[in-house]
Amino acid sequence: MTTQEMNQAFEQAYGRKAEKIFFAPGRVNLIGEHTDYNGGCVFPCALSFGAWLLIAPNADKVLRFRSLNMPQTYEIAIYAIKPQADRAWCNYALGCIDIIARRHPEAKLQSGYDLLYFGNVPAGAGLSSSAAMEVVTARAFTEEMGWTLADDKKYRTELALIGQACEHEYAGVMCGVMDQFASAQGKKDHAIYLNCDTLEFEHVPVKLEGIKVVISNTHSPHHLDSGAYNDRVRQCKTAVEQISKVKPIKFLAELTPEDWAAVQDAVTDPIAKKRARHVVGEVARTAQAVEALKQGKIELFGELMTASHVSLRDDYEVTGKELDTLAEAAWQVEGVLGSRMTGGGFGGCTVSLVRDEAIETFKAFVGKEYEEKTGLKADFYVAEIGDGVMRL
Ligand code: ADP
Ligand code: MG
Q: What is the rounded distance in angstroms from the CA atom of residue 317 to the CA atom of residue 153?
């Protein structure tokens, strides 16, 4: 859908023209999975698809929410902003407006607004359609409510934090900051090497001559639910406690593989030991992958992606049949440099580096294997790495 068509849709919905239009991208994490809440780094990039928001103030003191992706519409008085029923999609937007006002008392909602969203990130596939929606709303409404920062880098970090707080408080998902951060700080043809604990980050050029980032969607109904997620968080904490008896640490990410070899026997819980081994390995792999990319060693980057999947499958145990089938089929295709699950796990997507000439074979072979083994149909997107949130 073009922005002209979105403008027409706005006029049709509200009987007048939109005043402003904003865009924020979805994201894909290239490597560094389940490291964020262990004090480690992640390496996501923003995609060229995401969420658009068209707005115009109204004189009615109400926020009217519509989305071209959803049948439900909402109308909420500006003096009655609070979380709506569970699963109401407007929570991802409303929460941002509430949180802007709470984090920045000088920010004021001066009037009501008519809002129209459109997203082209497949929702619920682990490519962060929710973060795109939050960050686009945070960008629009910080400006409308009169709170922005001249320092663009700091401003974007704050937009990510507003989005994350919305996800916690209005969607009930206790996520790390990676998704919103990538959506806010994305840069065309760059990935973001981010420490989720300190929020220090670096834009690293992703120069892939003759190679594409291909995202494969499992369309699996399985998700990393909060139970399985919280189990992993708890198991990592157990490992930290047991290791701290011989070497005091706050996070598993503080350990190098050499440290791990020296302290691993202190972890007596066998499950916690596997989880910790993944985290320590993944933190080292992510650093090595970033270095490989900087030196143009794309083959090595691909091998590290594959090693990441193996570790997530065998030690962290968050892959499952669908993701394993996609990744393992991809590894068999000549011209695939690496392939791994991306996002929390169980369902969602894999991310692969594929040579241009192998893309059609990749889609045909992986698609066929996947359908035969799971009965489901996969979807494939050749990703472009795009910019972070913007006003158009
Ligand atoms: P993901 O972020 O992985 O895509 P989530 O379950 O976190 O999946 O977020 C998906 C939810 O976000 C949808 O169910 C919907 O409530 C909301 N959402 C995302 N994009 C849009 C959109 N364009 N319009 C309305 N709601 C959206
Ligand atoms: Mg989400």
A: 36
Q: Give the residue from 40, 47, 44, 43 showing the smallest Cα distance to 25.
A: 47
Instruction: Dump pLDDT digits (tens) for 272-295.
Output: 999 999 999 999 999 999 999 999
Whole-model pTM: value is 0.95
Q: Compute the distance between CA of residue 306 and CA of residue 55 in angstroms, rounded to an integer.
A: 43
Q: Which residues contact 308 (CB under 8 A, 6 or more apart)?
A: 31, 33, 282, 285, 340
Instruction: Report the SS3 class of residue 245.
Output: coil
DSSP classification of residue 83: -
Strand positions, DSSP E, 6-43: 20-29, 41-42
241-258 pLDDT, tens digit per residue, is 999 999 999 999 999 999
Task: Out of 86, 130, 177, 342, give the residue to mutate to test ligand 1, the one with the largest number of ligand atoms within 8 Å of its CB.
Answer: 130
Q: Which of 98, 114, 179, 324 is flagged as catalytic?
A: 179
**pLDDT of the residue at 172:** 85
